Amino acid sequence: MMIDTHCHLNDRKGFPDPAIAIRRAVEAGVEKIVVVGIDRDWSEKAVALAEAHAEVYAVVGWHPTSAAKYNREELAIIRDLAAHPKIVAIGEIGFDFYWDYSTLEQQTVCLYDQLDLAEELDLPVVFHCREAYPALLDVLEKRPIRPYLLHCFAGNLDDAKRAIDLDCTFGVDGPVTYKKADDLRECMRFIGIDRLVLETDAPWLSPVPYRGKPNHPAYLGHIRDGLAACLNLSQEEVAKKTTDNARRFYRLP
Ligand SMILES: [Zn+2]
C-alpha cells in the first residue's frame, strides 16, 4: 500500500467527482491521500474532503502565488481550520519566483506568518518552491528545525545538501519517470530512500505513460516504479519505505 502525500482533489475542474478518484486510487493500492490547500477556498475544500472520506487527510495554507490575496484575517481562518483532527500540516507555503502573481514582499509576509503558525500549532510544513531554493533555505536555516517537506523537489545537489542538513523530507513526483530527468534522478540517489515520499500532485505532473494528460492519484504506482528503477530497489521496498516516511512525517495512524 502507498500514500499519495500531495494531491489536489480539491481542484474542482480536475476532479468534478472526487469520490470516483478516491475509489480508483484505493483500487490501485493507494491507502491514503493528502489533499493540499493553496488558499482559503482550496483549504476549506480539502478539509471537507477529509471529513467526507476516511482515506483523505488535509493540509491547509496559502501558496506563494496566492499571496497577493493573503492577509491576517485569512491567517486566522487557517488557524481555525488547522484545529480539525484530520489536518496533518500547514501548506503548501513557500516561494515561487517563476510566476508573477505576487510580489516578493507579499510572498515573504505570507511565508513567515504561516511558518510562525506551524510552530505555534506544532504542525509539520509542506513547501512549494519554484526557482527559489536558495532563498527558501536561507529563511529556514535561520529558524529552529521542524518537520519540513519539500514538495515536488526540483532543486540541485547543493539545495539537497542544505535541505538534508535541515532534516527535510523530499517529495517525488511524475518527473522521476521522464526520460531527460537525469539530474533529478541523481539528486534522488543522493538524498536516498530514507527521506523520500511519493506524491502525484494530481491533476498536474502526470508520470509516464500519462505525461501530457491529467494526472490521477491512481497513477502513484508509476512514480513508485520510476523511483524504484532510479534507486535500483524493488517496488515493494520503495512502497514500504516511502509509506513509512509519509506516516512519520504527517504523523498518520
Ligand atoms: Zn500542490
Protein topology:
Elements: E1 2-7, H1 18-27, E2 30-36, H2 40-52, E3 56-60, H3 72-81, E4 87-96, H4 104-121, E5 125-130, H5 133-141, E6 148-150, H6 157-165, E7 169-172, H7 182-191, E8 196-198, H8 220-231, H9 235-250
Parallel strand pairs: 1-2, 2-3, 3-4, 4-5, 5-6, 6-7, 7-8
The protein binds zinc ion (ZN).
Key traits:
253 residues, alpha/beta, TIM Barrel, 9 helices, 42% helix, globular, binds zinc ion
Explain what you see.
By secondary structure, the protein is α/β, with parallel strands linked by helices. The chain has a single domain (2-250), classed as TIM Barrel (Alpha-Beta Barrel), CATH 3.20.20. It is built from nine helices and eight strands. The protein has helices at residues 18-27, 40-52, 72-81, 104-121, 133-141, 157-165, 182-191, 220-231, 235-250, and strands at residues 2-7, 30-36, 56-60, 87-96, 125-130, 148-150, 169-172, 196-198. The protein has an eight-stranded parallel beta sheet with strand order 1-2-3-4-5-6-7-8. β5 (125-130), α5 (133-141) and β6 form a beta-alpha-beta unit. α2 (40-52) packs parallel to α3, α6 packs parallel to α7 (182-191) and α8 crosses α9. The protein is globular. It binds zinc ion (ZN).
Bound molecules: zinc ion
Helix fraction bin: 40-55%
Outline = globular
Residue runs with pLDDT of under 50 for 5 or more positions: none
Major pleated sheet: 8 strands, parallel
Radius of gyration: 17 Å
The class by helix and strand makeup works out as alpha/beta
CATH T-level fold name: TIM Barrel
Average pLDDT figure: 98
**Number of contiguous helices:** 9
